[in-house]
Design a protein that fits this description.
Two copies of one chain form a homodimer.
Chain A (H helix, E strand, L loop, with lengths): L12 H9 L5 H19 L2 E4 L1 H16 L11 E5 L26 H8 L3 E6 L19 E2 L2 E5 L5 H8 L5 E6 L5 H7 L2 E4 L19 E6 L2 H11 L16 E4 L9 H11 L4 E2 L5 H27 L6 H10 L4 H19 L7 E5 L12 E4 L2 E4 H6 L3 H5 L4 E9 L2 E9 L4 H10 L3
Helix pairs in contact in A: 2-3, 5-6, 9-10, 9-11
């Protein structure tokens, strides 16, 4: 089904900045266009939990005044931005997608939000998250499921589903998300936008409601890879950021995703097509299983540690599915956590070999297209598949390994978006973005 | 009951070295005296699992040949030493007190054993450990309980019970132990000898069968504190060791043990008496409970991670009580481990305040005297007490906090030994030993 464009569809941060600085538009005008589009489209998409029209207009006025005075804070200046509702915003309700925090108004901004404001961004609202970010489907939240702009009967993916839907529908040019096992990249891929999860710790997660502290990352969603890079530079702890991607030889290798998950071959083909004619690497034996076990165990233990008091004190406030999964996670024995933590450096050493002769790995972001809302068990070529496991299968390994990973739109299958994922070692981010740029992404 | 002396009762490493170097005795003679005494006394004490007469005689001959050639490797040269059977010895059976390793002969030495040999020590045998070091009572081992030389119907304490009994009976002047929650200091105190657990990591634990890697320490047991220091210097990773304890003002404070455990007041009085007229500090609120929970949870998870395959594959080979406790430990949920690990730096910061105005803390090592073998529940002033919890209560906090801790004999209650424990911050070990020396220990 054709995606109806929004005011920011196809408009890059670079173009917006040029127009703003040239006086061809204003932050106020961009903000009104975002607010109008949200009012029109969001009843269908449910990308937003909270829209802060007053706050956005005030921020836009301030941004315009600074521009008028000759001050420009960079590529976020005057740009409408949406923020995942897991990320604290001072004075603006932050629910984490849960009835436990239905009326929670933080006192202070998360570090990444403070950096947005410092960069002159205009925060227009908070986007739908799977409750407590505990799910890659994006369809279990106190404010209802976020929906895929390509087909509102289908998942946006999650947990940063609202951020992905808002960017994909062109309601905003940029959104913040968080990514613990793929929560930026999965919805970005399923909704057909770009999403970047930097190296672990590269953007401070202070002020983000924790899901699993060992794996939690702040990331960005935008129309293309270049905009992800611009936003990343404005948000990173190290302000020197990433070197500019220069055209040239980047040693890209295709990583056969079958070692992680035997996905939809049509999806794999679309991603492979964009990756192009590059050599292929295979996963070392045992790496996929080890990464999956490590991810599952550490995440289960850390998440249930976050919620232990709520699980006993007010279980009825959780979404029923989230409650059931959290309750099961809380039973994970500690000895498995010890094993998982011990495995992590071993797995990292094993994975390092993947980069022996290559700078960047390419593989699909998600091995299937967006499933219908609520679907948990599906079939692929007659095989039963677990939807949640499928969604996470190709993204969570890079959270365990702390590696930067970027997803870009690669095409469609049955009219539904497919993402191509690039992965590199920390310090090689410029090569990651160069690989995307070389493929027109 | 009066303790019958052995060949090394009251003989210090300093005296032995003087006599060896002066030709007044030989390593061969000392070794024979140790072997004879073991043959005579050990049937009653069960301090040894394995006696290596041939190996000891060969080592003694080599040590004597070196002395004759003018080479002296330091205070361990030619000295009979016993090694806890949890510590790997190349070519010499190492059972870890378990039927799982009844005939296990390691290929290589633990690092601490290699250092013993480098120092010219004569390893006479392996000492009884509670099975897998998993118990402070010392009375559950595949080779039977080690017994207290002061009353063989009573516990040696554990898990390094054989090492403590061997030194207390004067069978050897020095023994190696390991200390995860008090396993050097508890048996040292109950048997009336000195024992030192250095700072975490100060003596490599490589080649020690793990109990709980976050807390495992290698330590030493000897007749007095000075001998512990000499042995520690020979074994420490940093060969510069510890500065010599110079007489002078050491700021010692008495730490009221009641915050950890309300023990036998007569035991507390004996320890307090040796500590002398020093100021008193109190535990910060919440510290004792936090340390106990952290110790219990981390130790349970780490220990059950070590034994998971044995628990499912060959449970019948464990001692019944050890099996029951390990099985319970394996059920500790991972989220509690996450909380415990997060608590550790918080507790360390809280405990640091104890040293604001003092260099060394003094408290009893164990708040009770040696209980009868097999006793698990007891009474103190009409209150029920759990024996294991009582034994560990004053030692395990310093494992969680990674602090050096020394126990010295302080006197007796009903003829049973009482230990006084000194605790310091890493780097202040010379003050710890100075505090002991100032009290004649």
């Amino acid at each position: 089904m054709p995606l109806s464009p929004g005011p920011f569809t196809g408009r890059t941060l670079t173009e917006l900045a040029r127009d703003l600085r040239a006086g061809l538009t204003s932050a106020a005008e961009l903000t009104e266009r975002a607010l109008d589009a949200i009012a029109e489209r969001d009843p269908e998409l449910n990308a937003f939990v909270t829209v802060d029209a007053d706050g956005a207009r005030a921020a836009a006025r301030a941004a315009d005044a600074e521009l008028a005075a000759g001050t420009w804070h960079g590529p976020l200046h005057g740009v409408p931005v949406a923020v995942k509702d897991l990320i604290m915003t001072a004075g603006l309700r932050t629910t984490a997608g849960s009835r436990h925090f239905a009326e929670h108004v933080p006192d202070s901004d998360a570090t990444c939000v403070a950096r947005l404001r410092r960069g002159g961004a205009v925060i227009v609202g908070k986007t739908t998250t799977h409750e407590f970010a505990y799910g890659p489907t994006g369809d279990r939240s106190a404010n209802g499921p976020s929906r895929n702009p390509h087909d509102p009967a289908r998942m946006s993916g999650g947990s940063s589903g609202g951020s992905a839907a808002a960017v994909a529908a062109g309601l905003v040019p940029l959104a913040l998300g968080t990514d613990t096992g793929g929560s930026v990249r999965i919805p970005a891929a399923l909704c057909g936008v770009a999403g970047f999860k930097p190296a672990y710790g590269a953007i401070s997660a202070a002020g983000v409601f924790p899901l699993s502290l060992s794996f939690d990352h702040v990331g960005v969603l935008a129309g293309d890879a270049r905009d992800c890079l611009l936003a990343y530079r404005a948000l990173a702890d190290d302000p020197s950021g990433v070197a500019d991607p220069v055209p040239g030889d980047v040693r890209v290798a295709w990583l056969d995703p079958a070692g992680f998950f035997a996905g939809d071959p049509r999806v794999v083909d679309v991603a492979r097509q964009l990756a192009g004619d590059v050599p292929e690497v295979r996963l070392p034996d045992g790496l996929a299983d080890g990464l999956r076990e490590t991810y599952t165990v550490i995440q289960s233990c850390e998440t249930s540690a976050v919620h232990a008091e709520r699980l006993t004190g007010a279980p009825e406030l959780f979404d029923a599915e989230v409650l059931e999964r959290l309750s099961a996670a809380a039973l994970t024995p500690g000895w498995r956590l010890v094993r998982a933590m011990n495995a992590r450096p071993v797995l990292a050493a094993l994975a390092d070999a993947l980069f022996d002769r290559h700078d960047v790995l390419a593989l699909p972001t998600v091995p299937i297209t967006a499933p219908p809302l609520g679907l948990r068990e599906s079939e692929l070529d007659g095989r039963p598949i677990a939807v949640r496991a499928a969604l996470l299968s190709l993204t969570s390994p890079w959270n365990v390994l702390k590696l930067p990973a970027l997803t870009v739109p690669a095409g469609t299958v049955d009219g539904l978006p497919v993402g191509l994922q690039f992965v590199c070692r920390p310090g090689d981010e410029h090569l990651l973005f160069a690989a995307a740029a070389a493929r027109g992404a």
